[in-house]
């Protein structure tokens, strides 16, 4: 265990700006990727519950494609092939990175939304429709508010997964946390310090997010019974 | 009020309704009885198109329900429905359950909607539960809220799909009492039920269904005391 006593944390300190920038970039990647992924995922998920084949099948194909291939491959295809083909040039690694994370997490979120919507009893839709609500109104007023409570825990997990997966965009040289570690490792030919630092930084971030998700869960994933709320019981 | 012509309904290969003809007049209370699997619930659910109609036609107030040109949502606002499983919205308080549709569809303001809701809840005897949530109510209370919710749209017809079948026995009567009151006030009602006492006392007409057909119909006194058809006799013999 000698190495533990010979660690040179000064090299991390020398590169602190690069790591701080890396933290910021990782946060931007994750937050943008997540928000975009949730919005896009809602539509995909609704599409997957559609009875119309021309809506259902493209959504299903999309979800299967993005869930069935590695994110790393998707990042490379999007940055090196897809975006240059569409726009004639690269739009920068940050754009490609965020785009890849949005497109990928949307596929996972779509499944969460689909499962959440389908978990609500059919009688709820029937009751709403029998009152004269349109399909859209029934969805907004009756189904989604109930489904959302059930989606909070898996959507929280998805956020944490995305935070960690965002490190894969290093492969197209986005300057996130892992990129900073790699630069330091290359400069000093020392590996323990930079990669351990990266690991700890991710750990701190995921810990903060876990706490955040737990708070949101307590706040939203409540039983409808107000008496039980005070005891902090979670939804059925 | 309601006219049903040669109504057929198939689920896959299973033909559940095999040609139903029936007319329901304004202010009439019709009880539909019959063994399980006879198609009574499906028949009821075809009236407001909760089930797609395979063949035939249903008219409500002159408009054909299963015509693509008809806006089914408009028709459904005129047809209240009460379900076996209540289907209250669990994420809303009792009063919100009752005010939601009138505010959303009839566009009446919150204050008027709540006044109306409290009146209706008083009518079903649950005014003091207005700000509770459905889970805090017993089955019978939930079903009475469901009736108030349907009435809030001021429907011309009320459909009841076995409204007391999911209730504990001691709660059946409170729901039947509300329904009796409605019938007295002149509401047009179609009630699928196993409550023969209710049918005998309240119905203007009893329809006996079996195997996807209307086998026999008539005054409750005729059907219960002097059934003509053998299948009606067999069914009533088993349950009375």
From TrEMBL, chain A:
<dbReference type="GO" id="GO:0006865">
    <property type="term" value="P:amino acid transport"/>
</dbReference>
<dbReference type="InterPro" id="IPR035906">
    <property type="entry name" value="MetI-like_sf"/>
</dbReference>
<keyword id="KW-0029">Amino-acid transport</keyword>
<keyword id="KW-0472">Membrane</keyword>
<feature type="transmembrane region" description="Helical">
    <location>
        <begin position="168"/>
        <end position="189"/>
    </location>
</feature>
<feature type="transmembrane region" description="Helical">
    <location>
        <begin position="23"/>
        <end position="47"/>
    </location>
</feature>
<keyword id="KW-1003">Cell membrane</keyword>
<dbReference type="GO" id="GO:0043190">
    <property type="term" value="C:ATP-binding cassette (ABC) transporter complex"/>
</dbReference>
<dbReference type="InterPro" id="IPR043429">
    <property type="entry name" value="ArtM/GltK/GlnP/TcyL/YhdX-like"/>
</dbReference>
<feature type="domain" description="ABC transmembrane type-1">
    <location>
        <begin position="23"/>
        <end position="213"/>
    </location>
</feature>
<feature type="transmembrane region" description="Helical">
    <location>
        <begin position="195"/>
        <end position="216"/>
    </location>
</feature>
<feature type="transmembrane region" description="Helical">
    <location>
        <begin position="68"/>
        <end position="87"/>
    </location>
</feature>
<dbReference type="Pfam" id="PF00528">
    <property type="entry name" value="BPD_transp_1"/>
</dbReference>
<keyword id="KW-1133">Transmembrane helix</keyword>
<comment type="similarity">
    <text>Belongs to the binding-protein-dependent transport system permease family. HisMQ subfamily.</text>
</comment>
<keyword id="KW-0813">Transport</keyword>
<feature type="transmembrane region" description="Helical">
    <location>
        <begin position="93"/>
        <end position="110"/>
    </location>
</feature>
<dbReference type="GO" id="GO:0022857">
    <property type="term" value="F:transmembrane transporter activity"/>
</dbReference>
<protein>
    <submittedName>
        <fullName>Amino acid ABC transporter membrane protein (PAAT family)</fullName>
    </submittedName>
</protein>
<dbReference type="InterPro" id="IPR010065">
    <property type="entry name" value="AA_ABC_transptr_permease_3TM"/>
</dbReference>
<dbReference type="InterPro" id="IPR000515">
    <property type="entry name" value="MetI-like"/>
</dbReference>
<keyword id="KW-0812">Transmembrane</keyword>
TrEMBL record, chain B:
<keyword id="KW-0472">Membrane</keyword>
<dbReference type="InterPro" id="IPR050086">
    <property type="entry name" value="MetN_ABC_transporter-like"/>
</dbReference>
<dbReference type="InterPro" id="IPR030679">
    <property type="entry name" value="ABC_ATPase_HisP-typ"/>
</dbReference>
<dbReference type="InterPro" id="IPR027417">
    <property type="entry name" value="P-loop_NTPase"/>
</dbReference>
<keyword id="KW-1003">Cell membrane</keyword>
<keyword id="KW-0547">Nucleotide-binding</keyword>
<keyword id="KW-0029">Amino-acid transport</keyword>
<dbReference type="GO" id="GO:0005886">
    <property type="term" value="C:plasma membrane"/>
</dbReference>
<dbReference type="GO" id="GO:0016887">
    <property type="term" value="F:ATP hydrolysis activity"/>
</dbReference>
<keyword id="KW-0067">ATP-binding</keyword>
<dbReference type="InterPro" id="IPR017871">
    <property type="entry name" value="ABC_transporter-like_CS"/>
</dbReference>
<protein>
    <submittedName>
        <fullName>Amino acid ABC transporter ATP-binding protein (PAAT family)</fullName>
    </submittedName>
</protein>
<feature type="domain" description="ABC transporter">
    <location>
        <begin position="2"/>
        <end position="236"/>
    </location>
</feature>
<dbReference type="InterPro" id="IPR003593">
    <property type="entry name" value="AAA+_ATPase"/>
</dbReference>
<dbReference type="Pfam" id="PF00005">
    <property type="entry name" value="ABC_tran"/>
</dbReference>
<keyword id="KW-0813">Transport</keyword>
<comment type="similarity">
    <text>Belongs to the ABC transporter superfamily.</text>
</comment>
<dbReference type="InterPro" id="IPR003439">
    <property type="entry name" value="ABC_transporter-like_ATP-bd"/>
</dbReference>
<dbReference type="GO" id="GO:0015424">
    <property type="term" value="F:ABC-type amino acid transporter activity"/>
</dbReference>
<dbReference type="GO" id="GO:0005524">
    <property type="term" value="F:ATP binding"/>
</dbReference>
